[in-house]
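Rotation project, supervised by the postdoc (A.L.). Task for the rotation student: set up a whole-complex structure prediction and record inputs and outputs verbatim in this book. Inputs entered:
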Amino acid sequence: MTFFSKIIGTGSYLPPKKVSNQELTDQLAANGIETSDEWIFSRSGISSRHYAEVDVTSSDLAVEASKRAIDAAQLQPNDIDLIVLATSTPDFLGGFPSTACVLQNKLGITNGAAAMDVQAVCSGFMYALSIADSMIKAGTHKNVLVVGAEVFSRILNFEDRTTCVLFGDGAGAVVMSRSTEPGVLATKLHADGSYADILCVPGNVQAGVVAGSAFLYMDGQAVFKLAVSLLDKVANEALELAGLDSSQIDWLIPHQANIRIMQSTAKKMRLPMDKMVVTVDQHGNTSAASIPLALDQAVRDGRVRPGHTVLLEGVGGGFTWGAAIIKM
Ligand SMILES: CC(C)(COP(=O)(O)OP(=O)(O)OC[C@H]1O[C@@H](n2cnc3c(N)ncnc32)[C@H](O)[C@@H]1OP(=O)(O)O)[C@@H](O)C(=O)NCCC(=O)NCCS
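Outputs recorded:
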């Protein structure tokens, strides 16, 4: 029997504290770190980002996004039989136990639904969506909650101006269900571990203390070059698998890291900028949360509608990258 998987509900959540470039510039200046709204916006397209309060975890953001997605899908939490959650900022050290398990409990899911975290940094949602699609198509699961949730502010070094201005916190979620009509038309994932050290948190725990650093490190220029060389290629691979060409795409929803990377991909794909959903200006880079956050925003404001064909793509630490073609 052939099963299809389809997104039947989306949701997202941003922590209330919004910090503009000017506010961040003023805060950093108080510690002797020099930056400006002009530098941040011109290099990245970011105007503001949201930060969670110190006692708020990824699962707290995930639970709000998930409730909205489950409501939009017109399901109850106990209809979910699998949670796949992408995060690089898990509630517990080493992601042990998984944030997906914490989320399951916070949602009041008592049916024994399977729950797992996925670690592919900013490509995490692409990986999670692809896993959910495969499990539904294999016939083992029917209603999968796919989540990207991050409190990236926890791993930012606010003395490193080259990274701390670029990232924010948030969560996005979709419910994917078994369907009689095609939804996810194609997915393609890749990784190359030889680039592990250009975007990483270069520490681990030894004898109960952090050895190395618990802060995000990024070689910005290397990441930039790699991202622009990979994203259109994987998008074209996914298009080919779906038997489509880019003129048939209604919306491009890329990982929201940097407007210049996003513009470059759109140009190479011959997609006009008005077909691209942009949230990086308001959210900054929310890592695994950025794609489902942007998707939910575009669904809720009426841009992405049932029947539309959407190209999702992302790139992140690992290095990892992936794309998906979806019929909404
Ligand atoms: C990080 C990034 C915005 C930096 O832009 P860039 O044009 O490459 O800037 P550079 O690193 O060359 O730095 C240029 C200058 O700005 C300075 N600078 C860096 N951060 C700054 C900041 N926040 N404010 C002001 N100046 C800053 C640098 O020190 C450097 O000064 P120098 O020339 O005197 O040494 C860019 O490399 C980038 O977007 N990389 C990809 C990031 C990304 O998307 N990561 C996530 C992928 S999932």
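Student's summary: The chain has a mean pLDDT of 97.
Supervisor addendum: Residues 35, 39-40, 43-44, 122, 161-162, 165, 218, 220-221, 223-224, 227, 257-258, 261, 285, 315-316 surround coenzyme A (CB under 6 Å).
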